[in-house]
Amino acid sequence: MAGRMTFAIEAGSKATMTNNYYAVFIDDDELMLKAIRRTSRRLIPNWDATFINQPLTWQESLREKAYPDIVFCDYRMPGINGAELLQQVAHKYPLSIRVLMTGDTRDEILLGNSGNAHSLLNKPFSDEHLGELLSHVEKLKALPVTHSQQQCLGQLSQLPVLPEIIEKLRTALNDENTNASQIADIILEEPLIGARIMQVANSAYLGFQRTTDTLEEAISRLGTQLLYALTISFVLETETAHLMPAALHQQVCESTSQMAACGKALAVALNCPAKCKEKVFTAAVLNGTGRLVLAMVNENSPQLAAQLNKVSTHPDILITVFLLTLWCFPEELIAPLLDIQDAPLEEDKAWINILYYAHQYITVKDKSQDLADYTSTLPEDVKEALLKT
């Protein structure tokens, strides 16, 4: 635009990186950038940051020899949209977390243009949401994963981006003044999700003595963490359906349901505490996200799939940990998941062991020789319980 001033506002020394983390914000709206700059000074004083209002020349404004930890980019900009720009970021800086900022949350925006984004930030966004996302980038960098695993995760594309209903639900669940009726109203914005929630709340493997015909009671039964996990799982099943063959998608979704049911049944059979049962079921449901992404990788990027299988014994778990950390799930649920690579652990009935047994069982249950080989290694009570599921 004629007469427009180009600027890249810096926080910290221009010559060298002065802090441990580096954020880049790209938006042609100068007022928005200045507002984000003021906010970031307060939220992330231990970060370096660059704020760019000329998207076509964004690379020229970055710090020399610096590698961004996260790049925020507005969707609607002159000359290039945010999805196209983030594709450039993915090529140049594959380990950077990529966030698409948009005030337009229509389905066609999410489905057609968010493939190179790890996360979606709806405008206007709160300081709290921005700060939480940035803090989880720090947690991503602190994950006990190898450099090779990081490189594989950075190459993932077509990652599912959480739609607006998830942010609404998360905000409501974090507000102690929100009641079940208000939460039900949010879920009913997607009627099919509401129906699936009811189905799970009335399923035999949750062990309730009677059925419920109200979403409010179903919400109270499930608890906030499992409700949130189920909603994410069901939403992402819908979001990923067009990205792989229908038969493959159905197979992955069904195996996730089977693993959750198997894990819960195993935890019950082994007389595990209620908290253990809940964690196993919730983690199995959430592992469906990693399984769906891995299925897409197997289908569309066989070379990357081979690399993932080389660097991890459980690549679906690795992807799940990455996504859950990015999506701001509690660390107490995420951190132990990577321990599945070393399971079974010494603690006899640790919840991660139960998840491991269920995970492995679902993988081999339809292959008679593999199933026999696997169950021969199990403690007798675990073997007996699994074969009854």
From TrEMBL:
Q: From which domain of life does this come? A: Bacteria
Carrying 4-aspartylphosphate, the residues are D74
| InterPro entries given in the database record | CheY-like_superfamily (IPR011006), HDOD (IPR013976), RNase_Y/CdgJ (IPR052340), Sig_transdc_resp-reg_put (IPR014626), Sig_transdc_resp-reg_receiver (IPR001789)
Under what name is this protein listed? Response regulator
GO aspect biological process, one term: phosphorelay signal transduction system
Keyword entries, A-Z: Phosphoprotein
The answer to keyword Glycoprotein applying to this record is no
Q: Response regulatory domain: which residues?
A: 22-138
Q: Which residues cross the membrane?
A: none
Q: Which residues form the HDOD domain?
A: 159-343
Does this UniProt record's set of keywords contain Phosphoprotein? Answer: yes
Q: Which PROSITE patterns match?
A: HDOD (PS51833), RESPONSE_REGULATORY (PS50110)
